[in-house]
Specification:
Largest sheet: 4 strands, antiparallel
Number of domains: 2
Structural class: alpha+beta
Helix content: 55-70%
Radius of gyration: 23 Å
Distance between the termini: 14 Å
């Protein structure tokens, strides 16, 4: 297991890379064609533009973005992992700093392509932070907090906020800009949900004749409960044991590997588990 110092260095690297990619997506794809990203980033952009366009007040979005993130970080600091909060806040600081200083790189002329590829990069940048126990701040703070509390992904609720953001964009400016923002956000959210598997679950069923060796192999490496069920094969009538467990999706391959290490002849089935209730162990964020 990595020491805390090595783990912190590793997280710092991924958070920095995440911030660079997200900032590049915002500066080179989102901002040049007035596409609004999702969450607090998009909200900050809209407020900044409204203040400039209707009230002649110049408030760069990254200042507002930073202020909102600091407030949210203070609210959740004691309720989710401290390292998670600190590195997430670092990510938002870097995005604010880089967005204010990076020069846009002209790559495409078509707005639709800008929305698609910008969304891909933005989602990939945020996904990097999330898969390495940090986040891009903003609504991620609230989403992770409630995901920890209810053991399920909250990204669908974030989508509701983003829909309201899109409606505001259409009403204040124009619906074409809102439509491109929808594409940007949809692509970004698609990438994030496929990268971040912390709050999705899979059930694993193992049929084995040597249950104890399989259980021992799994529990030495993964902290999840396993249920033993006596069973009998219908074809040969042999006595077997069915082992049942539910794990986070990103752990499935690991559990299967250790199960087969305990019994190479085991029969294993995995299936998606939509919701988990009761006493389920969720590895805490640091």
């Amino acid at each position: 297991m990595l020491s805390k110092e090595k783990e912190a260095v590793k997280m710092f690297f991924w958070v920095c890379l995440s911030a660079i990619i997200q900032s590049f997506a915002l500066v080179s794809f989102s901002m040049p064609v007035n596409i609004y990203p999702s969450g607090v980033t998009g909200f900050s952009r809209i407020v900044s533009d409204v203040l400039a366009d209707f009230f002649n007040i110049n408030l760069p979005f990254f200042y507002l973005y930073m202020a909102i993130n600091v407030v949210l970080a203070i609210l959740v600091y004691s309720k989710i992992g401290k390292m998670f909060t600190i590195f997430s806040l670092l990510q938002t600081i870097l995005v604010s700093f880089l967005s204010a200083r990076l020069q846009p790189v002209h790559m495409l002329d078509d707005t639709l392509l800008m929305a698609v590829f910008g969304g891909l990069l933005n989602g990939f940048g945020i996904g990097l932070a999330l898969t390495h126990d940090a986040s891009s701040g903003g609504l991620d703070f609230l989403s992770i907090y409630f995901s920890n509390k209810f053991h399920r992904s909250m990204w669908d609720y974030v989508l509701v906020f983003n829909c309201l953001l899109i409606i505001a964009t259409g009403l204040i400016y124009d619906w074409e800009r809102a439509a491109y923002s929808i594409i940007f956000q949809f692509v970004s959210n698609y990438v994030i949900t496929h990268m971040h598997k912390r709050y999705t679950h899979e059930a694993i069923i193992i049929i084995t004749k040597t249950p104890e060796t399989v259980i021992d192999s799994i529990l030495k490496n993964v902290r999840h409960g396993i249920t033993k069920i006596d069973a009998r094969g219908a074809y040969k009538g042999e006595e077997v044991t069915m082992l049942y467990t539910v794990v986070n999706s990103f752990q499935t391959a690991e559990v299967v590997k250790y199960a087969l290490k305990g019994d190479p002849a085991a029969f294993i089935e995995t299936r998606k588990s939509n919701n988990v209730y009761g006493n389920y162990y969720q590895k805490p964020l640091n």
